[in-house]
Amino acid sequence: MRISRAAALSLIASVLALVGARAGWGLSPEQPAVTLTPQVVEAGSPVLIRVDRPDAQSVEGEWLGRKILFFRSVDKLDWLALAGVDVEAAAGPSALRITAHTTGGPVDLSQTVEIHAAHYRTGSLTVAPRFVEPSPEDLKRIEAEKALKDKVFGASAGEPLWAGSFHAPVTARATDSFGTRRMFNGKLASIHKGMDFRAASGTPVRAGNGGVVVLARPLYYEGNCVVIDHGLGLFTLSMHLSRMDVKEGQQVAGGARLGLSGATGRVTGPHLHWAVRWEGAYLDPAKLLRLELGTTRDQVRRRIHRPGR
Fold first, then answer.
1. For residue range 91-118, what is the model confidence (pLDDT) as tens digits?
2. What whole-number distance in Å separates Cα of residue 48 and Cα of residue 30?
3. Count of beta carbons in the 10 Å neighbourhood of residue 202
4. What is the CATH number assigned to the segment(s) 134-176+194-290?
5. Angstrom distance (rounded) from CA 156 to CA 228
6. pLDDT, tens digit (0-9, with 9 covering 90-100), for 254-270
7. How many CB atoms lie within 10 A of CB 39?
8. 2-6, 212-216, 275-279: the lowest-pLDDT one
9. Parts of the chain belonging to CATH 2.70.70.10
10. Is residue 151 helix, strand or coil?
11. Omega before residue 160 within 30° of 0, cis
């Protein structure tokens, strides 16, 4: 089949434009350089940020006072980050600052992200009085445990240790308790920053994804608690366990058994409290479970390094 020289040049130009757009030579409005999933961001939302700049040597960002750490996608064409908005974040516009560092110099990809209010309930619970008004001895323990948790959350692996989407830690019905303003014995004590599963005592509790166990011990409020570092500032917490089957420093794969559910710590009955924390922000676990991450990482790297451990 013969085509004219003009048609051939037009075809070549179209192909070059397509390749150039993918390589970051020029991005059309239909193919933005930065995309957020989900597109509508609420307080408490985990967010997958995708930067379409395969020509970048590195990408860095900052959002709501928290540093964003990016990593390359499996196909090396995009840069990705799993970030989020704290449950207590104020509604309104926020500045998402992103810089792609290329051979031609830094490229500013910053944009404004509107944070929408998430409407949470207020609930009342009755617990043992010592969990509302701790004794002086208990206050010392609580303060020591706070220092311990600050240290644990202060260091995270410098690469993503998770692979694909996150999965529920137990086979049990979940409640919509995340974000609930909780009254304990008639006093407003806290905002519920996790997801409760109605798991009977002795239900196996599993890792929602791969990572390293950075805390596995009994705590005052949390009871028997296991914390997993998934890398780049992302942690999951499993609380109120009746038994812990892992040790601090242990590497676990997604689905690995962490222990058994129970009723230790500040509880009204047996259940599993599962929390998601990123750079100090508490995120809605239900929304993380709905976030499709299957194409972001093909496998967890075999060598896992955690700074400061």
1. 999 999 999 999 999 999 999 999 998 7
2. 19
3. 11
4. 2.70.70.10
5. 10
6. 999 999 999 999 888 89
7. 8
8. 2-6
9. 134-176+194-290
10. helix
11. no
32-116 CATH fold: Immunoglobulin-like (2.60.40)
- Residue 53 CA, chain-centre distance (Å), reads 23
| Residue 117, both tokens | 């209010």
**Token couple for 224:** 């028997």
**Residues present in the chain in total:** 309
Q: Which residues pair with 63 in a beta bridge?
A: 66, 96
Average pLDDT, the chain: 83
β-partners of residue 194 are none
Find tokens 């509508």 and name the residue: 40
| pTM of structure | 0.80
pLDDT at 299: 36
Model pLDDT, residue 14 = 45
* Structural contact between residues 254 and 289, judged by C-beta atoms closer than 8 angstroms: no
pLDDT of residue 203: 97
* CATH 2.60.40.10 domain position(s) in the chain: 32-116
Helix (H) or strand (E) holding 299: none
The whole-angstrom separation of Cα 231 and Cα 14 is 41
- For the chain, the maximum distance between any two Cα atoms, rounded to a whole number of angstroms, is 90
Both tokens assigned to 205: 């509790």
Report how far residue 141's alpha carbon sits from residue 120's, in angstroms, rounded to the nearest whole number: 31
Question: Which tokens belong to 210?
Answer: 């791969």
Q: How far apart are CA 244 and CA 260, in angstroms?
A: 7
Tell me how far apart the terminal alpha carbons of the chain are, to the nearest angstrom.
Answer: 66
Task: Give the Cα separation of 167 and 296 in Å (integer).
Answer: 15
The span from the CA of 19 to the CA of 258, in Å, is 46
∠ Cα 157 159 164 (to 5°): 115
Q: How confident is the model at residue 135 (pLDDT cuts 50, 70, 90)?
A: confident
- For residue 141, name the pLDDT band (cuts at 50, 70, 90): very high
